[in-house]
Amino acid sequence: MIVRGCQRCLLKDFVSRGPFHRQHGLFRILPENGLEPPLEIIMPNEWKSAVSLAKRGAQIAANLTPYSPALFATFDVVHLVAELRKEIMALQLKPEMDIDATDFSYWLSTTLPLPAHFRLQLLGAVSTVHRLRSCLMMLRTFNRLNCAVCGIGLAVKEDGICMNRGDLTAAYINPGGVTQEIFTMRKVSNISVFGAPTAEYTWFPGYTWRHLRCRGCHGHVGWKYESESPELVPKYFYGLRRGDVVPSIQPEEGMNPSELQEFFQVQNGAMQPVYYREK
Description:
It is a single chain. By secondary structure, this protein is an alpha+beta fold. 30% of the residues lie in helices and 25% in strands. It is built from nine helices and eleven strands. It has helices at 38-42, 45-48, 53-63, 69-73, 77-89, 101-111, 116-123, 128-141, 257-270, and strands at residues 9-17, 23-29, 144-147, 153-156, 169-173, 179-185, 191-198, 207-214, 220-227, 236-241, 245-248. The longest helix is centred in the middle third of the chain and has 14 residues, at 128-141. The radius of gyration is 22 Å and the shape is globular.
């Protein structure tokens, strides 16, 4: 069984505790605050058909402000989506071409190999622009997935492989009713495989699975999947549990102290998107 989130909500208060330790609460559905292009707000309707806002909107709007087109573009939805599509090409991700910016931002939040706390912050972002900007900054800075316990490197982001409708990640429910979210990777490192291969309760038909253990802390971090048929491609791949890995942002070799300080300031900023607060 594959699960999918459909609605953002905010827990306002616990109402009561039911039997069997079940908790009941009061939730509020969160709105999606759109930031309209400034040019569309000030331009008369009869002019809009004569201007290609999708291609020229940011350039024209920037000329009406004290800000440069480059700075203005960092808050332009069309520009952000185009830049994000360039970044995810290296990960072999294939979102729908006609998906709108808001749905695209949610697709990124659930698909990219991000830690759970960062993904929750993304889902609570105040607008589509904030969510897209945070995803773009994160994609441009992180390059590895490390063990969440010992910090040893387990995989690089370019080794992701899409095994679920063009996504790197998916959520599955095991026979015990526990939801497991995994990143699918074609290669991993610092991993040992143990257990006999079995196809029982497999989430990928035609593949058997075995357990993965981190060589640094010996903790369980996921599964290795191997094809039962020579016709299946790939022959094998790996599934790393979301809660057991964290993105690692490594500086380039040869950076001086000031460059390193700026680098880690950007890293900290990538992990702190603007999130929703009640007024």
